[in-house]
Amino acid sequence: MTSLERPDQVPSGSPSAPRLVVLRGNSASGKSTVAQTLRAAYGRGLAIIPQDVVRRDILRERDRPGAVNVELINLMARHSLSYGFHVVLEGIFYVAHYGDMLTRLIRDHPGVAHCYYFDIPFQTTLERHATKPVAKVVGEAELRQWWRPRDLLPGGVEEIVDEHSSLDQTVARILKDSGLAPRENRV
Pick from 126, 62, 124: which is nearest to 94 by CA? Predict the structure, then answer.
């Protein structure tokens, strides 16, 4: 198989079928840390598609409905899944801007898909944000402007991750729910 050929289609219930995991929530709620920890636990074969990297770093685009990044994230996820990668999407992903795309992606994915909404109090996210280098240029006013309480996808498709769930608990839960076996448990 060349690097451009798709692998044989794996049945959607198969342990090796590509998984789709969506991590959503407000800024500084822990999504990026969870995504990176999932990657460290799983290893190769897991693609992380961070909204901020696509929107802000690759395209340098404002977050608004109909922006180019919405469809680029969709295409990146679908392409990665079609080549057998498990995919973790992580970002704020406002429902008003990304809800339709995420709903279609989840609906169209023939394999396992799990979605999590990080429902963390504003004060906690503000404290976490203060520990990041970006806190020197993005302050409380911006965080408050971006804040959306319980901006959930329609249809009850998201599990809630609250402030009482530790990093290890959250990662273990997602690995278990999605059937992504940590590297040391795979043969």
Answer: 62
Domain count for the chain: 1
Residue 79's domain comprises 19-178
6 part of a folded domain: no
Burial 133-169 (b: 16+ CB within 10 A, else e): eeeeeeeeeebeeeeeeebbbeeebbeebeeebeeee
The yes-or-no verdict on residue 137 having pLDDT over 80 is no
- Average the pLDDT over each of 12-16, 95-99, 129-133 and give the range with the smallest value: 12-16
Residue 187 inside a domain? The answer is no
Q: Is residue 10 part of a domain?
A: no
Domain membership of residue 81 (yes or no) is: yes
Give the CATH number for residue 75: 3.40.50.300
126-to-78, 118, 149, 150, 187 alpha-carbon distances in Å: 33, 14, 14, 17, 42
Distance between CA atoms of residues 123 and 146, nearest Å? 14
Give per-residue pLDDT as tens, 35-74.
999 999 999 999 999 999 999 999 999 999 999 999 999 9
In sequence order, which ranges of the chain are alpha helices (DSSP H)? 31-42, 51-52, 68-82, 95-108, 122-129, 140-146, 167-178
